[in-house]
Amino acid sequence: MAAVRVWSVAAGLIAAAALVACGSGSSTPTANPTTTPKPAATPTPAATPAGSVLPAGMTCSPTPPPLLRMNIKVHAQDGNRTVLDSSPLVENVDHYCDRVGFGDWKQCATRIEGDPQRVACDYLAVGKARDTGRWGPTWIGEGKACDAEFSQCANHATDQFLVVAKGKGEFQACVADEVPLAAKGVRCSTFEFY
Q1: Measuring CA to CA, which of 27, 65, 145, 186 is 20 to 30 A from 100?
Q2: In sequence order, what are the residues at sequence separation of 6 or more whose Cβ sits closer than 8 angstroms to the Cβ of residue 182?
Q3: Does residue 90 sit within a domain?
Q4: Per residue in 121-133, pLDDT tens?
Q5: What is the rounded distance in angstroms from the CA atom of residue 8 to the CA atom of residue 3?
Q6: Is residue 62 part of a domain?
């Protein structure tokens, strides 16, 4: 008799489990408000340096993505004085390079040379120089700020993206501290010539 009772209880438990597993009522699942997925956030434009309100009349749209480095080259040479030129290179985020006319490159300038927005976009990508407060990089020659006593360089009279090197050596173009950098980006880019 006890065996029959154990068997009856076991059979009852199995039947109850089968009913629970099969479920009952509506086949439409109910949403749990605490676990309902939230809509994805809308991406925001790339950050620009704090206080980087462009001069009146200048625009840059789309804004440049994070900076990779400054590209530095010889612009002109006259005896022992060399004018160096710098321009920002940015990472290709969301096909930025293609959207501004370069193609789908890994990195590019902020705009193609001659584009009416090029200067404004360069300004946003670099920020303002610490020593002059002008839009463009802070220049360092042989470890000293340009225009410092006994320095190897002088800031260009009208364009902060240019510098006059007084002889050969190592020169750096450094972007503002607030400028967003790419994962492999550098704040100061170096140019050496001997």
Answers
A1: 186
A2: 65, 66, 67, 68, 90, 91
A3: yes
A4: 999 999 999 999 9
A5: 9
A6: no
CA-to-CA dists, residue 72 to 25, 36, 40, angstroms = 72, 52, 40
In angstroms, the CA 157 to CA 84 distance is 13
Three-class secondary structure of residue 4 per DSSP:
helix
Which range marks the domain in which residue 139 is found?
67-193
Do residues 74 and 168 make contact, with C-beta atoms less than 8 angstroms apart? Answer: no
In a domain, 133, yes or no: yes
Domain count, the chain: 1
One-letter amino acid of 179: V
- CA 170 from chain centre, in angstroms, equals 26
Q: Which is it for the CA torsion 185, 136, 74, 172, positive or negative?
A: negative
Residue matched to tokens 């009952």: 24
Q: What's the token pair of residue 130? A: 């610490």
Low-confidence residues of the chain, pLDDT below 50?
A: 1-48, 50
> Closest by alpha carbon to 90, among 81, 80, 82, 100?
100
**pTM score:** 0.73
